[in-house]
């Protein structure tokens, strides 16, 4: 993520203004800022189409034709009081009607304008205006060839990262470098449906989009610039990215995150994926997820299609993923360590199913500091393919992820992730060699250990052989020490 320091400073300043303006909940602040950024983006696109029409001669009717005051360029020139009234009464209702019938439109139906201070709105609009100018300057620099939408997407991700910095409401995002690692391990491609059952801010879906376009991106150029097939672009925009979340605020934020990354039609719905109302089966080719830990679901609302008897969400989500994956579909999911060795019947049944009804490719143990300062739980990444069975499982003991494992999470030089990706791609070669950090364990051995998938169960512990002196030498040393002590006592008595 490349975001200029001036842009970061502007975003930090917006956050400070919202906080001091009485909107301390970060999700509420993000919703308001998101809606304003969206209005600015619509105005920019409308201006571009107007300009294009003057060259092509084609008639273009502005999207603001019937709501001129909803146009950013119109209300940004008003005094602060008139601006507040216009945005509240005209601009916000306009975006709630935008693209009627779409999932994005449905997600906005209950969006409320909650900024009550004219000064807060006018200062925020001024800051957003300045951020857009900085982004436009950025793409005009000879050293920066990314497209505007790429830069805008990076800016928005930095804005979203402030949710974790604020530490409010238990909302914190999966670290971007972990998301990218899991995406590369599962390798989504154009033509595949990618799903996140608890999508949050859509970090996994955006990562999948970027990964898919990497082969079509020239060095230093705009993301996907070499993808010229309109049918593939249509597939990517309209039939690739799917997500669910139970929180409507997260739905709106994830929708905007994807649209700011130039994904025009993401399919993200407000749905409790574990409830009786969600009955999707064998629908997706790739699932990427970091589902909620330590939660539970009401037994009365639990879906009847689960193969395990449990109300623990960390178990039910793995079972759900197995259900929604198509045969041959791939999954990369973050789980708490307890899933790997828990002794309950549900834990063992789930692990047995992972081995017998899927090909469990990898168990990557992550250090407990990965989610600090918001959670200290030890976690792992499971990578599996639906269908078939498992003959052996690849384990990797990640000790460092490129950041310190304390609350500060400062960047450090030690990072196992590049090696994880390299070794994962090499593991099926004939000359692959087990090491202390990464090794294969046969499914038979895992079954012998009651389906335990904890890496500590199988790590080889090397004992260093210590050579002790001959017994006679030790006795002689003791005798000498005893003599020395006796002599010292005699001297001490004389001194006393």
Overview of the structural elements:
Helices cover 47% and strands 13% of the residues. By secondary structure, it is α/β, with parallel strands linked by helices. α1 packs across α7 (148-166). The chain folds into two domains: 1-172, Ferritin, CATH 1.20.1260; 178-468, Rossmann fold (3-Layer(aba) Sandwich).
SS content category: alpha/beta
Query: What's the gyration radius in Å?
Result: 29 Å
Residue ranges: pLDDT <50 for 5 or more in a row? Answer: 142-146, 165-171
Summed over residues and divided by their number, the pLDDT gives a mean of 87
Strand order of the largest sheet: 3-2-1-4-5-7-6-8-11
DSSP, total strands: 11
Please write the string of helix (H) and strand (E) elements: HHHHHHHHEHHEHEEHEHHEEEEEHEHHH
For the record, the CATH architecture of the largest domain stands as 3-Layer(aba) Sandwich
For the termini, the CA-CA separation is 75 Å
Number of folding domains? Answer: 2
CATH class annotation of the largest domain: Alpha Beta
Number of helices: 18
Labels describing this entry:
single chain; 496 residues; alpha/beta; Rossmann fold; 9-stranded mixed beta sheet; two-stranded antiparallel sheet
């Amino acid at each position: 993520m490349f975001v200029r320091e001036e842009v970061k400073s502007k975003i930090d300043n917006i956050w400070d203004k919202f906080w001091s303006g009485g909107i301390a909940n970060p999700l509420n602040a993000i919703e308001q800022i998101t809606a304003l950024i969206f209005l600015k983006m619509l105005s920019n696109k409308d201006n571009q189409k107007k300009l294009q029409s003057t060259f092509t001669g084609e008639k273009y009717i502005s999207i603001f034709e019937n709501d001129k005051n909803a146009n950013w360029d119109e209300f940004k020139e008003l005094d602060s009081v008139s601006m507040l009234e216009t945005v509240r009464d005209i601009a916000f209702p306009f975006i709630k009607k935008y693209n009627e019938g779409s999932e994005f439109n449905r997600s906005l139906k209950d969006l409320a304008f909650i900024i009550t201070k004219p000064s807060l709105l006018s200062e925020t609009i001024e800051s957003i205006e300045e951020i857009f100018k900085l982004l436009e300057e950025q793409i005009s620099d000879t050293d920066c060839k990314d497209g505007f939408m790429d830069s805008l997407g990076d800016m928005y991700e930095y804005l979203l990262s402030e949710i974790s910095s604020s530490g409010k409401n238990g909302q914190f995002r999966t670290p971007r470098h972990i998301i990218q690692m899991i995406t590369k391990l599962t390798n989504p491609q154009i033509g595949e449906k990618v799903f996140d059952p608890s999508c949050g801010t859509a970090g996994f879906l955006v990562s999948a989009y970027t990964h898919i376009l990497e082969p079509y991106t020239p060095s230093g150029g705009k993301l996907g610039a070499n993808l010229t097939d309109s049918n593939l672009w249509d597939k990517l925009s309209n039939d690739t990215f799917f997500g669910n979340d139970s929180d409507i605020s997260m739905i709106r934020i994830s929708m905007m995150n994807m649209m700011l990354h130039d994904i025009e039609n993401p399919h993200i719905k407000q749905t409790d994926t574990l409830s009786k109302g969600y009955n999707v089966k064998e629908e997706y080719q790739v699932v990427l997820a970091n589902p909620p830990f330590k939660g539970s679901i009401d037994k009365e609302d639990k879906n009847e299609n689960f193969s395990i008897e449990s109300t623990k969400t960390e178990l039910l989500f793995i079972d759900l993923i197995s259900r929604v994956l198509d045969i041959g579909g791939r999954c990369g999911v973050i789980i708490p360590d307890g899933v790997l060795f828990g002794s309950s019947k549900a834990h063992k049944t789930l692990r047995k199913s992972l081995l017998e009804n899927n090909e469990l490719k990898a168990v990557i143990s992550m250090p407990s500091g990965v989610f600090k300062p918001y959670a200290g739980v030890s976690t792992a990444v499971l990578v599996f393919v639906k269908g078939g069975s498992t003959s052996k499982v690849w384990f990797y003991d990640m000790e460092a992820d490129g950041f310190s494992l304390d609350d500060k999470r400062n960047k450090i030089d030690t990072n196992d992730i590049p090696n994880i990706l390299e070794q994962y791609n090499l593991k099926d070669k004939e000359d692959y060699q087990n090491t202390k950090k990464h090794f294969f364990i046969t499914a038979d051995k895992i079954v012998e250990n009651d389906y335990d998938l904890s890496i500590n169960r199988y790590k080889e512990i090397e004992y260093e052989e210590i050579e002790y002196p001959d017994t006679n030498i030790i006795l002689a040393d003791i005798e000498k020490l005893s003599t020395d002590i006796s002599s010292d006592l005699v001297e001490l008595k004389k001194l006393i």
